[in-house]
Design brief:
about 170 residues; 2 domains; six-stranded antiparallel beta sheet; five-stranded antiparallel beta sheet; 1 helix; elongated
Length: about 170
């Protein structure tokens, strides 16, 4: 198993499922300890999903207790996605019926969620919060989204052109 495994789940393959062993992939991320991996999942003929999962321990001064992920058994929700933690194993289910937004730079559809902190665990004699970030970007043919066109007039912008002229820009 890779450090981050990505596959389709559900009867109609309507869910992207990320699974990982956090204890194996736990490392120094710079300011804190955590897990940060990216994987690609093929979709249709020319497209693929780029999935990234980042879990970080929110403790000051990179304490010794944050060097190892000692999970518990819990489930929580990150946006419209379910997160299951069973010991060091984590599973994230991302339904394709999620709310997708276009990225700023390329306009590709993206699901981005952050839980800050999403859950907390008691280790030794302190409680550590864990931030979970999830990116799922669909890469494929150009112009997957039609961007809104603006026409300035009367001190504000008309989305798609002025309504009285019956002009619509696409």
């Amino acid at each position: 198993m890779d450090l981050l495994d990505c596959r389709y789940a559900g009867g109609q393959k309507e869910i992207i499922q990320l699974s990982t062993d956090l204890q194996t992939g736990w490392e120094d991320l710079g300011k804190n300890w955590g897990f940060d991996k990216t994987v690609k999942l093929p979709y249709l003929s020319e497209s693929y999903f780029r999935c990234r999962l980042r879990v970080a321990a929110l403790v000051p001064d990179k304490r010794e207790s944050a060097r190892i992920f000692s999970g518990d058994e819990l489930s929580c929700v990150l946006g419209q996605n379910s997160v299951l933690v069973n010991g060091p194993k984590m599973e994230v289910n991302i339904p394709l019926s999620n709310t997708w937004r276009p990225t700023r730079d390329s306009g590709n559809p993206i699901v981005y969620e952050i839980g800050d902190p999403l859950f907390s665990l008691t280790v030794v004699d302190e409680t550590i919060g864990y931030r979970v970030q999830l990116w799922v970007v669909l890469h494929g043919p150009r112009n997957m989204f039609v961007r809104d066109q603006y026409e300035w007039g009367d001190g504000f912008a008309w989305i798609g052109g002025r309504p009285e002229s019956n002009r619509r820009k696409f």
